[in-house]
Design goal:
Length: 113
Amino acid sequence: APFINIIFFNKLKWLLYDQVHWSIGSAALIVNGKFRDEHLYLGLFGWYNSWCIGFFEFWIMMNYGLPAAICSHAFYDFIIFFMCYIHGIICRQRKSHYITKTSTSYPNLKETV
């Protein structure tokens, strides 16, 4: 709990350390820990990212409501999918450039892609 409170600049202090809200904070820690562990297949970055994004979404929900958390999650997903799309375009461009370069350098080399 102290680690996540430091990451969020003491914004979750009321939730994690308050005598009234500590049960909500402990439930958030447990649920977000399970959520984080489900993303272990993404590696260390994905594991850590899901932990932080999960608490960020929880903070948005507790302060601004569930519709705001849903909208911020949709925006986050849009950014991630857009970055993957751009990455795919760049990789295809590099691959086609590589095939064109090798086929002109070696006329007997057949394209396998």
